[in-house]
Predict the 3D structure of the following.
Amino acid sequence: MPAKNYAATRYSSLDEINGANVGKLQVAFAFSTGVDHGQEAAPIVANNTMFIVTPYPNIVFALDLAKPGAPIKWSYQPRPAAASQGVACCDVVNRGAAYSDGKLFFNTLDDNTIALDAETGTVLWKTKLGDINTGETITMAPLVVNGKVLVGNSGGELGVRGWLAALDATTGKILWRAYATGPDKDVLIGPGFRSFYPSDKGTDLGVKTWPTDAWKTGGGTMWGWIAYDPDLNLIYSGTGNPGPWNQEQRPGDNKWTTTLFARNPDTGAAKWALQYNPHDEHDYDGINEHILVDMTVDGNPRKVLLHPDRNGYLYVVDRESGEIVSAKPYGYVNSVLRIDLKTGRPVMNPDKLTKVGTVVHDICPTASGLKDWNPSAFSPSTGLMYIPHENLCMDWKSRPVSYIAGTPFVGAEVVSKAGPGGHRGEFTAWDPVEGKAVWTIKEDLPLWSGTMATAGGLVFYGTMDGWFKAVDAKTGELKWQFKTGSGIIGQPIAYRGPDGHEYVAILSGVGGWAGAIVSGDLDPRDPTGALGMNGVMADLKTKTAAGGTLYVFALPKS
Amino acid sequence: MSSPCRNPERCAAATRLLSFALVTAFAVGANNASAQQSTAPEAQHGPNEVFVTGLFPNGGAPPPQDPIGARFEGNKPAIAAGKELFGQMNCTGCHFNGGGGMGPALMSGHLRYGGRIDQIYASIAQGRPNGMPSWQDSLQPQQMWELAAYVKSLSAPASASASQTAVPGASVKP
């Protein structure tokens, strides 16, 4: 699975590559995917085979690691509908596959989940889950839990109603589907539902916290990460932003958008919910990763999850009860003053609320958040969390928008800009016990890549101009870097090869929301382009070009 | 054989390889196709030359060169009406103020399916295979011409682009 384990720590216990020898790291092999859009996927390694999924057209490659140069073992082309490209909000990305029990599961941009025989690439089943004519796409990496493939949709910028579904891993049959909005029976909220905070309690809040019928086009898509606690038998995943972005068209809390759900993976039944951003008015989705950690809080051991929200706050949440243990900003934030631990709700800065017809300046963080989808890592050896994130702010003007199925349902004109200091990215090592940053690396460009920590005392990440970096996990000191062919927005992994040695892999190929200006050949003269990202990424075309290449690194053979 | 040959080497090779009858039949067929293709640069072709340009994408035929296009192109009230529609129909959601996002940029002067106003009209009316919706059942021809006039104006020299004020590269003070 892309997150390495169910706790989603992205921590590799391999330690052959360490601070003393990483300087000698060199390319073992490379592989062109032939697709030059944003490569957000994590390579997956199982049975001496590496599996990668490309952005649209979602080609799957299996590379034979047991042979010199890792030749193609098989490849599979699902041939998704071309029109799906036109309803994908933020480049035509795919965040990777999941391997379980001899099968490889992945999603296509045109709303299919496909199971392949991992040995041969033969299709075992294919299940259609959505309709691109409503603006619905799938970009997330599935997760397999208890023989079920968990999949969620994308399309929060097109008024798509969010859902998370479970498919039988053997047959592809849909076992349950939990919507993010609507009546409790659709959200799979039943008698066992026990939220911690009063505003997350009540019946049919997914209807009552909206104007009439607005929940039907209200977003809350589930395009991010899922974590799983086998002891509690609970899955944790967040929902996306409400639609439209123009908040004046949807008075109310807009449940259950931007909400963390704890659900039983067997039935989908919600155990509790925590809405991070009630009535969100800045596009602060709640889909970022939840890393499951057991840690001591005020002298007591607690099962918690760590969540760096788009709103800029690092939430430590009790994963049994849904109580927020702490919530501290991990970068510069001015739109949210603090998180009220009594109510669980953010206290908003009234000067940064959005309005129709008025440009509200310098809202921090920007719409893509202090951090977007790109996942953090947690190292049990340092006790630190490593957060690749942004330092961006924005100007925002809302305007009325009509719902037209299959077209964007946004109603806002946004221009992003660099945050304080002028640098657009930060890589922060965070102590979740103390609730503070231990060190921070400033990066010129926003960080849109994931990260990985290793037992070798290293942390890996990439930059949007193509540098792949290893830094010391304790100090942040740069230990090694390599310039790849295109900007990096992928997820680094480490694996033990058939020869017993440690390898590190990353897909290079710029794109995604922040890199769409390059992968989509957008025009930098319009700063509102790409939902306002053009305003702050105008120089990216002078720093990198589109690509799509896998790089695998190893120490020289001795 | 009445077709003039623009490439003597290729013509000579064709004469060697093909029988007279076959060459004649092929040339007649090519001339008929050319006659139907009103935008063809030349009406006559040799046996080993075929058009690789001038085809219309998406299997459709190009709309006739409707003189109405000239009435809308550069027409300020039409452009203003088109800009209004561009927002109302959520075109801005994909193309923004011409810079593009989910959809391609429209202000660069290069449009995949043609940058003439009647070609832009056809793209709006018919839709295009990578996700551009078809609007001919939702909008009146007049409205689509106004939209086309606005889109055409985006790539005009010194076009006004974004309506907001932020200077790219500016950063926020804490």
